[in-house]
Amino acid sequence: MRAVLVREFGPTDQVEIGDIDAPLKLGTEVLVDVHAAGMNPIDYKTVIGKGAAKAVEPLLPWVPGGDVAGIVAESPYEAHDVQPGDAVYGIVNHWRTRGSYAEQAIVPSLALAPKPESLTFEEAAAVPCAALTAWDAVVRVAKARAGQRILIHAGAGGVGHFAVQFAKYFGAHVATTVSTRNVDFARSLGADEVIDYTSERFEDVLQKVDVVVDLVGNVADETGTRSLDALKHGGLYLNVPTGSWPDYASAAAERGMRASSVKVEADGSNLGIIGRLIDAGDVRVEVQRVYPLDRVHEAFGVLQGGHVRGKLVLRVR
Questions:
Q1: pLDDT tier at 235 (50, 70, 90 boundaries)?
Q2: Gene3D superfamilies from the xrefs (predicted)?
Q3: How far apart are the first and last CA of the chain?
Q4: Is this model's pTM higher than 0.85 or not?
Q5: The CATH number of 130-261 is which of 3.40.50.970, 3.40.50.720, 3.40.50.1110, 3.60.15.10?
């Protein structure tokens, strides 16, 4: 089968498109014929030797990709809920096996859900990792609700555009930071306050908030540190990008605030809920661009450049 292959860590233009053996399904895993694969920043970070490179090094040549949408080729067993021919989407455990940038992928059955009927495979592949990260931050941890004020940084990005919509759906007052070109887009997602970070400093214009969902950290303009200036005493700071602010917990504690990181959990049950929200029209998916698999180098270049609105997706078949 065709796949994107990482034979050694280095620049993303060194990845190859080649042929490898089809993966072998074990236990309650599901073999999926991949139609589309979503791209996430952790993919390129791992390819260049950062991210999860240490974990996947024993798997070289490794196939990147966590997000998958496709058709079930083999189910766990005859009477399982997931059956051959089902259209599904979910998350590949690509830190322990080959990822979704390939014609077939192995996915744990509990990490899958029915593909939303209203979405194409390309649109569906943009959902799992980003939407479940946003769900875990906004719904599971922050418990978004009416009367709560939530600030979401990078509200036009992959995780961010879902986070804004989830927080608004559950009744919170939502503020978000975006670049100039994304101001109207963020408003269309339902944000109550949109701060153009190129012309305003959020801590100067916002009332104190109860929760900050930080999708930037201190890698840009000390966004993490400044977020504490916008947070109420006793408020909750959530740091999402791994390594973006190593000292967030101690900095928050010194100021009487709570803090936690957030890691995505490949929960097919929650992904099913998200799919129903999408089909009901309560949540929408933004795909900036779809690339064929053989243009993965171009796609990686755009992904590394940052400032993607929503998600980038690879069309596999």
A1: very high
A2: Medium-chain alcohol dehydrogenases, catalytic domain, NAD(P)-binding Rossmann-like Domain
A3: 11
A4: yes
A5: 3.40.50.720
